[in-house]
Amino acid sequence: MTDLWSGTYRESAVWGEMARALISSADLRPGMRVLDVGSAGGGTLFPALERVGSAGSVVGIDVDEEWVGWLQEDIAKRGIRNAENVWMNGEAMTFPGGAFDAVVMGMVGLDEDYDFETGQVLRGAPLMNEVSRVLKPGGSLSCSGWLWQDDSEWMRELVRRRLPDCTKHGYCPATAEGYVDLLEAVGFEDVRVTPHEGRYTFEDSAEWLACLSHVWEDELAQIRADSDALRAFEQDVADVLAGSLDEERKLAYTRSAVLVSARNPIGPRSSRSSARGTAVA
Asked: What is the tally of structural domains in the chain?
């Protein structure tokens, strides 16, 4: 089984495929200065750097200091001089206004800015307002998010078999309509949402669980404290996923997401136009 929560996590199929899809859809051109919010292991940073070329640059930020260190070390090992990764909270960035031509955000949760269930902007949307502030007038924003996945539902039930008091629902899923509402509320223009589905293959249910374990990190830590409960839980997961085995007896799983693009207004923020589902990747 691949240890997806050591340095090899960044290479997992799910995150790599989504990062490539996001950067392929982004409006990035040679010479641009790009901000990568939530850079993690560099899944979006390195593809973005290829797009902007030697005349451009990419700055990654993340709130996880350990991830920042890993990626900065990786950048140094590759001898890259036009990219850097820094420890920074996206809600309180230290960059001057209009510092970037484009911003990319790969699978960055926006549940602190927006309640996708009720359709309400939260706390004045501090993250997206900061993104708008550091983005040049007319600059492009490209981001991605997970839609609802069926495994959130059945994983919750499996976890509750071992932890009856668990009330967690899994990660907070986004909606296409929610992205449009949030970005237009902040003042972005030309908001476009493209559905995207990726089919991923894992060696077995253990590898699948390792890739998704961050969503249930605290709960799994409690289950692992009892070896019998852990074995039973892992068998439950394997039983559910058995229906997704392909002809080679590998686990094939489809995940639904959205790719979102928008543009910072050049003039005063007035009427905005949007398009929902204008293309399907």
From this structure: 1
